[in-house]
Write the structure tokens for this entry.
Amino acid sequence: SEILTWPWGGRIAELLIGPERTWEPANDAQARYWMTRYPTAALLPMMGFVKLVRSQELEAIQRPILVIYSPNDQVINPDRVEEAYERFGSPIKKLVAIDDPQDPSNHVLAGRILSPDDTPKIEQIILDFVASLE
């Protein structure tokens, strides 16, 4: 994914991936509501944003922060999540690892399409965090 931020990254990505990125949906609902095919060029602005966020001074952020992630995520690099969490300057922060989400890619942690059984657990984590701020 870092290739996308390099000079000529878009062209290199097209050579490696092709002009389009496609993937198989996990179920009928995902096929209906998610985009399973898009131009490789659509990845460029997303990675540009990721690069921008990575360069920010996270240490200056002093607001409460709750980070919920899966250490087994196959879409993003979970090590980067942990590294970013450590950089946040907030005195009130919580990192919650969800080890076994329903989503086959371990990326979508809640929601009726990929992780319906996990949604109540995630909801409670959020509610407990917000309640701890009062």
User: Anything to note?
Assistant: Residues 119-132 form the longest helix (14 residues). The first strand starts at residue 20 and ends at 22.
